[in-house]
Amino acid sequence: MSVLTEEQIERFFNILNESSEIIQKAKDQSYLDSLIETLDAVQDGDGRHLGLTASDAQRVTNIYAKFNRDDYDAETLRKSIQMAILKAIRLDKIQANYQITPDTIANVIGYIVAGIFNDKKQISLLDPAMGTGNLLTAIYNQLDRSLGVKPTVSGIENDDAMFELAASSFEIQHIHAELFHEDAIQNVLAPVVDAVISDLPIGYYPIDANAKGFNTHSETGHSYVHHLLIEYSMNHVKKGGFGFFLVPSQLFQTEEAKQLLKWMQGRIYLQGLLNLPGELFENKAAQKAILILQNTGEKAKQSNPVMLGEFPSFKDQTAFKKFLTEIDDWQQRDLL
User: Fold this and answer.
1) Considering the entire predicted model, what is its pTM?
2) Where do the YtxK-like N-terminal helical domain residues begin and end (predicted)?
């Protein structure tokens, strides 16, 4: 990353941060809520509608005057917003489902997606659990840079605050997106796409009645939300299309996995399961992997072999690049 880009990231972060701190103090509210208001107001360049005193409204308006959208590319803006959200998570002690997918992981997923779709002039993407939209916008920007393709994107998010952050992030980056403020498990009528990309929430889905229409629902008690979302996602992928999911490394080693595997038979090809480096996680139980699924139909076929393995440390650039080359070879030789 160039020094200029780092300076721009810091510059826009400072604009977001200074405004959010003023609003937070004036309204005695969370940093997160203040950031949401800032992201909305900075685009208008006007703080008068924020419900502040005339003095504070003028202060934030003066801060917004430092922001000229034309000075920034989308990726710089995304990184600045990411920094501000990370500060909100830290300051407000926000629960785990707000955690942002690290850029190192987003970049790897984007690399795999770019390799599979490298001959496409257009790609449509969906994230059924988009959170703040960071993963979806990171991959959008990566595909724009690496393939010269501006994907058509859609996202679903049930949480109010995360949805508002995502909507503002897309808008400020000038990324047109179809966003749904809904619970995907209630079978949102989202578009059918070339690929689903998602860092799936992990755990039990609380509303059993909503899960009953899914083949992956549990026969007793609550169902795993990540199983339900995988099924939902692949139902919204075209024939021969792909799903790229961040999942627990132990996904297929639980008792509940039997129902997931049963649903996949005859419908879905398991094309890859790539464990992320163990050093990124607190313990083995928390380790995650990139799951690559493909719908049957069109020219899709079961890859032989399935791509299984574990990424070397991201710090070992030689080994890391060698592993990426192995993925490239597998895509060309066994998958596509």
Assistant:
1) 0.93
2) 10-88
CATH 1.10.150.470 residue ranges in the chain?
3-92
**Residue 118: Cβ within 10 Å count:** 15
Cβ atoms of 82 and 14 within 8 Å: the answer is no
Letter string b/e over residues 297-319, b meaning 16 or more CB atoms within 10 A of that residue's CB: eeebeebeeebeeebbebeeeee
- 3-92: CATH architecture: Orthogonal Bundle (1.10)
**pLDDT tens readout for residues 187-245:** 889 999 999 999 999 989 999 999 999 999 988 889 999 999 999 999 999 999 999 99
- CATH number (3.30.565.10, 3.40.50.150, 3.40.910.10, 3.40.50.1010) of 96-335 reads 3.40.50.150
